[in-house]
Amino acid sequence: VHPNVSQGCQGGCATCSDYNGCLSCKPRLFFVLERIGMKQIGVCLSSCPSGYYGTRYPDINKCAKCKADCDTCFTRNFCTKCKSGFYLYSGKCLEKCPDGLEANNHTMECTSIVHCETSEWSPWSPCMKKGKTCGFKRGNEVRVREIVQHPSARGNPCPATNESRKCIVQRKRCQKEGKGKKNREEKRKKSNKDESKETRQESKGRAARRQNREQRENNNKTQPKKRKAPNKEQDLAPVDTAH
User: Fold this and answer.
1) Please, are residues 43 and 34 in contact by the beta-carbon 8 Å criterion?
2) pLDDT digits (tens, 9 = 90+) for 22-76
3) Domains, the chain, ranges and CATH?
4) 56: Cα separation from own chain's centroid
5) Which residues pair with 56 in a beta bridge?
6) Which of 16, 60, 74, 99 has the fewest CB atoms nearer than 10 Å to its CB?
7) Residue 71, Cβ neighbours under 10 Å: how many?
8) Residue 122 DSSP code
9) 8-state DSSP, 216
10) Reduced to 3 states, what is the DSSP secondary structure of residue 56?
């Protein structure tokens, strides 16, 4: 250690020197040596940098280097992340994954092989031909299933998700498209037309009766009242001329 030891240090150092940097750290900080060219300088950090792991002792907390193939580690013999070209498995960095496992190039880990899984088959569809269920004797029916688990890179691939087979149906004539609907529409229009016709006839009848009634009333108003015939006995009575 360089003899020029100072107590008034910066950057978390408890003691330091102009030549070696930090010689000891304040509580809870980690001491680590950083190489600058041919020279090593002591620094004090709150956590260890990449490629190092921290150890705590009563007198000093130190950062020690991980194994050469580790990028980060929990201890020297337990890696948590590997450097490029290695795959992590159980705290170790391997160039090749063990049997039964496969390399995951996304996470750079050795993972279990996953095989494809599918659901149960659906029921067979109705027998059809060219999208129709009538007008033919032989057709096809199909069934399907879904993929519920996609395979990993080395897993068993997925089987077919649909099947088709020949089928025979009882021959029947197809109802023309829209014929039933057209007939119902025509019947509805005819019914509406008949109802409208009856309504018009009833309206005409009521109007005619009202017109006849009004005509009779008008005739009664315009025709002069008949005068009562004079009583012949009264007309023949003698006239009193005594006065």
Assistant:
1) yes
2) 888 988 899 998 888 888 889 999 998 888 999 988 888 999 989 999 999 998 8
3) 7-65 (2.10.220.10), 72-112 (2.10.220.10), 118-168 (2.20.100)
4) 51
5) 61
6) 99
7) 17
8) P
9) H
10) strand
